[in-house]
Amino acid sequence: MHLSLVTCSKCRAILPAEQFNVEQFVPCPSCASAISAVVFPALFREQTVMPAEPLIIEGEASCFYHPQKKAAIPCESCGRFLCALCDVELNGQHLCPACLESGKKKGKLKSLENQRVLYDRIALAAAVLPLLLVWTSIIGAPLALYLALRHWKEPCSILGRSKARFVIAIVLSILQIIGWIAVLIYFVTK
User: Fold this and answer.
1) Cα pseudo-dihedral 165, 166, 167, 169, rounded to 10
2) CA nearest to 65, candidates 74, 77, 54
3) pTM for the complete prediction?
4) pLDDT digits (tens, 9 = 90+) for 47-91
5) How far apart are CA 67 and CA 60, in angstroms?
6) What does DSSP assign to residue 93?
7) Which partner for 99 in 62, 77, 178, 179 could form a disulfide, CB atoms 3.0-4.6 Å apart?
C-alpha cells in the first residue's frame, strides 16, 4: 500500500489511515496543525502487476526498435516490424515513429498539421488596410479579391472557423473596385 506517501503538509509526518476522508479538519499527530486528507479509494487497493509484453520466441519476428519484443504489426510506410509500443495508428494507418516524424517534417501527413496560413485574415487585411490610405486600394482591393477567391475552399484554421472574413474581404474589395471604376469614369467623361 501507498499509505506512507500521505504526509502532513506542514511537518511531513506520516498520517494514519483513520485521518483520511474525514468530514472536518483533524489535528496532525506530530505538529497538531489542522489538516484534511482526502484520498481516492484506489489508494487502499493492492497493486497488481501488469504482465509484461511477451518476449519473442524462436522463429517469430521481433520489433525493429526493441529486438527483444515480439512484433505485432508492420509499418505501412517502410515495412519495419513494430511491437505494440512502437505502433502508432493514425487514421487507420499503422506507422513507426521514424515514418511518423519524417511524414510530419515533410508535410506528407496532413492530419498532423499544427499550423496553417490564415488566408482569410490576409485577404481581410488586404481589403481593410487600403481604406486607411485610399490610393493603395488600387492594388489592395484586387489582391484581397484574388486571395479570398483563390483560397476559398482551403480550411481557414486548425480550429473551426467560418468564412466570414473571406466574405467581408470580398465585399470590401468589390466596393473599392467599383469606387475606382466610378472615379475613372468620372475623370474620363469630364
Assistant:
1) 80
2) 74
3) 0.42
4) 665 555 556 677 788 889 988 888 889 998 888 999 989 998 887
5) 11
6) E
7) 77
